[in-house]
Automatic annotation (TrEMBL):
PANTHER family: 4-HYDROXYPHENYLPYRUVATE DIOXYGENASE. It comes from the Eukaryota. The keyword 4Fe-4S does not apply. GO terms for biological process: L-phenylalanine catabolic process; L-tyrosine catabolic process. SUPFAM superfamilies: Glyoxalase/Bleomycin resistance protein/Dihydroxybiphenyl dioxygenase. It catalyses: 3-(4-hydroxyphenyl)pyruvate + O2 = homogentisate + CO2. It is found in: Cytoplasm; Endoplasmic reticulum membrane; Golgi apparatus membrane. GO terms for molecular function: 4-hydroxyphenylpyruvate dioxygenase activity; metal ion binding; protein homodimerization activity. This is 4-hydroxyphenylpyruvate dioxygenase. Residues 16-147, 179-337 form the VOC domain. Fe cation binds at H182, H265, E348. InterPro entries: 4OHPhenylPyrv_dOase, 4OHPhenylPyrv_dOase_C, 4OHPhenylPyrv_dOase_N, Glyas_Bleomycin-R_OHBP_Dase, Glyas_Fos-R_dOase_dom, VOC_core. It comes from Petrolisthes cinctipes. Belongs to the 4HPPD family.
Length: 380
């Protein structure tokens, strides 16, 4: 233990319950979306067939990325109903695998964190798992999961999927997305500092990176951002807020349609973004487009840089992959279009080459690409 407690991003959960992560249609349809479009595989299931009488959960997995898609089974589920009415589809919970749950909860209580659900245990033939849940920004929660020696499929109460293999995966290429790189939370104006301070105070995170509206702006809109991270810097949580501009920023659009603070996007890391995006596009995944002028300017700037991008720039341009760099390395990134009807949550695919930033050099291009879609929606 190198600090009061330790968090490790080995398991995380974004909860879709007719209004939790990314699709509000029935769970089999939501799971099918991630399987067919994003290359996930069925991993685990909890529902009527396993003895769960109130909630059904479909778990899909791709390497170290796990999504849990959740829906109510019975009419009148007030908690899920309220969340759906307010937020639409969204990320309700981000779960962390932890080593010392007691120390985490004790410290969180001492520092005034809101405990949604105190420590509880669940058991099955695979052993015991301990949990606790706290409130973070908006209606978003963090569940701490202490697995110990548990050796079951996923968590207690889950069984193998009703359909263990989706035949469509046999005919489509594997995008090879590896793990969750970071998860971004959008805040209303002037609430970013409080949200970042929450992580510093209650989870002993520290500030890792930040930009303000003098650095990130377009003709119409701007943002401010702080990235917080755990002691080992394995979990990255960027916190954004809108800044005043001539028109509505994409951060403000999110806040308006989501009904407050919430998870804006989930970044998924890959070792080969070119292959990943080729494969995802062949599966029908839609991504934001950026103007060719971005690449014309980029090529000129890279001539003066110490860093050499080894990927073919023409291929990156063809696929609309963005490049950000500093003197030590570079990253490649691309963003999907919104993955539900409300213009709120989307996904990112990112490849890092000795670069630990978050694409500050691309924010202007990203904002301009999003502003094209905002204008089409009548929201710019």
């Amino acid at each position: 233990m190198r600090t009061d407690y330790q968090l490790r991003q080995t398991v995380w959960k974004d909860w879709l319950w007719g209004g939790e992560n990314l699709r509000a249609s029935p769970d089999p349809m939501a799971a099918s979306y991630y399987i067919s479009r994003m290359g996930f595989q069925p991993h685990a299931y909890s529902g009527l067939e396993t003895g769960s009488r109130n909630v059904v959960r479909h778990v899909v997995r791709q390497n170290r990325i796990i999504f849990v898609l959740v829906s109510p089974l019975n009419p009148g589920n007030e908690e899920m109903g309220r969340h759906l009415i307010t937020h639409g589809d969204g990320v309700k919970d981000i779960a962390f695998s932890v080593e010392d749950l007691d120390a985490i909860v004790k410290k969180a209580k001492e520092r005034g964190a809101k405990i949604v659900k105190d420590i509880w245990e669940e058991n099955d033939e695979g052993g015991k798992v301990r949990f606790a849940q706290v409130q973070t920004y908006g209606d978003t929660t963090h569940t701490f999961v202490e697995r110990g020696t548990y050796n079951g499929l996923f968590l207690p109460g889950y069984k193998r999927p009703l359909v263990p293999v989706d035949n469509i995966t046999k005919t489509l290429p594997d995008p090879k997305l590896d793990f969750v790189d970071h998860i971004v939370g959008n805040q209303p104006d002037l609430e970013m500092e409080d949200a970042a301070a929450w992580y510093e105070k209650h989870l002993i995170f520290h500030r890792f990176w930040s930009v303000d509206d003098t650095q990130i702006h377009t003709e119409y809109s701007a943002l401010r951002s702080i990235v917080v991270t755990n002691w080992e810097e394995t979990i990255k949580m960027p916190i954004n807020e809108p800044a005043p501009g001539r028109r509505k920023s994409q951060i403000q659009e999110f806040v308006d349609y989501y009904g407050g603070a919430g998870v804006q996007h989930i970044a998924l890391n890959t070792k080969d973004i070119i292959s990943a995006i080729r494969h995802l596009r062949s599966r029908g995944m839609e991504f934001l487009s950026v103007p060719n002028s971005y690449y014309d300017q980029l090529k000129e700037k890279l001539k003066l840089s110490k860093v050499k991008v080894v990927e073919d720039m023409n291929v990156l341009q063809e696929l609309n992959i963005l490049v950000d760099y500093d003197d030590n390395g570079y990253l490649l990134q691309i963003f999907t279009k919104n993955v539900q009807d409300r213009p709120t949550v989307f996904l990112e695919v990112i490849q890092r080459n000795n670069h630990s930033g978050f694409g500050a050099g691309n924010f202007k291009a990203l904002f301009e690409a999003i502003e094209i879609d905002q204008a089409a929606r009548g929201n710019l």
